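Figure 6 in text form: structure in, sequence out.
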């Protein structure tokens, strides 16, 4: 068997405890990616299923409440569907890095060209000019109150008509956005960058000594992915490490479960127990 490396680039939970993971295998020459359905990660006797396979790098994954999954790749395409029913759309000429949305008819992707692309339920279209460097994340409470962040402290707000650049006192790579309400939004990134606010008013609540990645709000608690340091909680003033036995770069949550991804593993957390597969 050829040597290969494995990277889990995202995991999203369903209300019934199933998690869907984006897994990339690299043999030194080429990539091959899967979307894997894990019905019950707490049991070893429950079979898993690969529901999508492509010879590319799946860079992110997002799942709507109805169960439709959106997966961007490094060829600028977006794969959308569920089960065995999938469509493929060429959205950008450049690699896409992130996907996020409000529902089946309002999904956003972005990547290395710095352009925001929107799915309206029928087609993809560019809704911004190039905003700067590579886009890494989206967040907001509605399509008229959307934030986008990325490399080189890229940070913009969209009101449904116009884009407004939000200046922050940092040069960090911003990779996490979490909108708790229209007036309470957090953005996180490298070198412990952490800002909280809305519009053009932001407070610096950064935490030095670590890098931050994606965030999630689960069971009235803010969780922040800490890369190789695991996962942290944030109480509004300081962060506390709650699990450091596996790397965490991606977080996604619903009311019952949080899914975490990083390295070669995906984890499901129900508020008490951590379960998940290794893809080696």
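Output sequence:
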């Amino acid at each position: 068997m050829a040597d290969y490396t494995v990277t889990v680039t995202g995991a999203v939970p369903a209300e019934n405890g199933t998690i869907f993971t984006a897994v990339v295998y690299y043999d030194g020459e080429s990539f091959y990616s899967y979307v894997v359905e894990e019905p019950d990660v707490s049991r070893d006797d429950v079979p898993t299923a690969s529901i999508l396979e492509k010879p590319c790098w799946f860079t992110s994954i997002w799942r709507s409440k109805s169960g439709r999954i959106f997966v961007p790749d490094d060829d600028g395409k977006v794969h959308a569907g569920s089960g065995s029913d999938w469509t493929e759309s060429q959205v950008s000429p450049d690699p896409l890095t992130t996907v996020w949305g409000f529902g089946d008819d309002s999904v956003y992707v972005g990547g290395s060209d710095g352009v925001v692309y929107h799915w309206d339920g029928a087609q993809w279209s560019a809704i911004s000019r190039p905003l700067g460097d590579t886009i890494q994340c989206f967040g907001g409470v509605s399509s008229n109150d959307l934030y986008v962040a990325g490399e080189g402290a890229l940070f913009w707000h969209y009101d449904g008509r116009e884009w407004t650049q939000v200046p922050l006192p940092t040069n960090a790579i911003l990779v996490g956005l979490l909108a708790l309400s229209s007036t309470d939004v957090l953005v996180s990134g490298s070198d412990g960058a952490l800002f909280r606010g809305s519009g053009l008013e932001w407070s610096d609540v950064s935490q030095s000594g670590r890098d931050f990645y994606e965030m999630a709000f689960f069971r009235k608690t803010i969780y922040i992915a800490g890369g190789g340091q695991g996962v942290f909680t944030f109480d509004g003033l300081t962060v506390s490490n709650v699990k450091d036995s596996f790397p965490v770069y991606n977080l996604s949550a619903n009311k019952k479960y949080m899914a975490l991804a990083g390295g070669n593993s995906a984890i499901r957390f129900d508020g008490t127990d951590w379960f998940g597969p290794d893809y080696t």
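Caption detail: The chain has a mean pLDDT of 96.
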